[in-house]
Amino acid sequence: MIKNFIKIKKEMNSSTPHVSIQTLLTSYSENEIDEIIDWAKQIGADNVNLKSLSMGSYTTKEMKKEYNYLLPRDKKLQRKQSKVYKTICRTPLVQALVYWNGDLGLCCVDFDNVVTLPNIKEKGFLKTLYSEEAIQKRKAGFQKQFDLCKKCSLGNADYMGINVDFKK
Length: 168
What we know:
Blueprint: H1 2-11, E1 20-25, H2 33-43, E2 47-52, H3 61-67, E3 80-81, H4 91-94, E4 97-98, E5 104-105, H5 125-129, H6 132-142, H7 147-150, E6 157-159, E7 161-165
Parallel strand pairs: 1-2
Antiparallel strand pairs: 2-7, 3-6, 4-5
C-alpha cells in the first residue's frame, strides 16, 4: 500500500504529500535499524522515524514490569524524559491524527480518543481540522490542559528516537 502511494506520487511528479515511515524501536526491531532505513529510502519515502517505545503515559507498574522486555536493550535508543516539566506541547499543532471512524484525534498518545474532536466525514479533513471546536481543543492540548497531557511521556521527552531525512 505504501509503495503504491509513493509510486502514484512519483507518477504525478509531486513533492507532496510528505511521506514519513514511522515504526517503533523495540527490543525486537533495534537490530534492524539499518534495514528499515534502507527500505524506506529504497521505496522513496521522504524520511523515516524510528520512535523509541515508551512505557510511560498510561502504563501501570504491573504493565511496566510485564512488558519491560519490549524496550530497546541499547540504553542510547531508550526514550529519555526531561527533568524539566514542559508547559507546552507542540504536537497538537504540528500533527493531525484521524481515527479509523473519521474522528480527529488530539495526538498519538490519545489512543483511546479521550479528547473528542469532530469527525471529518461531514465537512472533510481541512474544514474539520480548522473548525472552531478543533482549534480550541488543539490549543488546549498545546497548553497541556487535558489530564491526558499532564501525564504524557511524549510531550516531556528529550529523546524520541531516530529521524533520518532523505531529502536533505
